[in-house]
Design brief:
This protein is mostly helical and about 300 residues long. It has one domain. It contains 9 helices and 4 strands. The chain has a two-stranded antiparallel ribbon with strand order 1-2. A two-stranded antiparallel sheet has the order 3-4. The N and C termini lie far apart (about 95 Å).
Amino acid sequence: MKIKILFAVVIFLSITSASYSQKALPIQVNTLLAKIPEPENCAASFKMCTIDSNSEGLVSVKDAGPLINGIQDQLTKNMTDLASTSMNSSYTNASVPSQDQMNQAMQNASQMQSMNRDQLMQMAQNKQNHTAPPSNNNADLMKEFGQAQNAAAQLSILQGELATKVSQLGGEYQRKKQEVPAVKVTCQDYKVQGGDIALPKCDCVKALYLAYYQKRVAIEDEYLQKLNGLLQAYLPKFKDQISIIDKVENDLDYGDAISIPAFKRQVVGVQQQALGALLPFLGIVSNAIKDSGSEYTGVVNINNGHLPTPCQ
């Protein structure tokens, strides 16, 4: 009997605090996923990246560029907003109810002792604040929400599979780049007029270093082609599962269509999982663009006359 009365009190208090419960963000996660670009080749990556240049004109890559940074900022903001909403809701819902609320709760509890669980749930729905959006049957919504939970579980599996395959592919091509022979200057020496210093000819030195960096770029371009094939194989799988979550979130009006605070928190949690699935995908692309752009700086610096070996 005590359990039934407690359940009635919880139902009543959830009605009075429903307008303060957290909710998911009114966004489509797949829209953000669609903005993530493909890392095409080293030259294209270099153009996308943010480039630094020192006083001598030697260039280096700072980050993956404004497009990637913008997506990262939006993703971070969305996840921060969800976390902030959850935290604020926790403090709000933890506030002590007034004596009148408790008295009313106990009175309702006494009247509802003969009701079963379904009747109690229906009563809770009927007593929702009139300013809240119309509520469908919570049981039906929970059933639909199960689809989103299954999709979130599938996303976790996909993340693990993709991360493993990308790591294996990256290791393979890192070894290939390490196998490129280091530059050995074999150019004919040039005797500096009026001195004892013998230096190689610059055109020859440039050709040697340019060939070295071009070999590394060619290997990196091959890696990007295979990486793109891998990403394109997984992208539809990610989209399919996120589409399920996006649809369910929309159907649940991002939490407003339901009246149980604990259930609202689960709606937020699933959206967090969908957004979280973008993090490794974005990280893979961001790292690929930055690394391949950095690889291309060798070619750019050599073409700009920055030769590691002194020459004349």
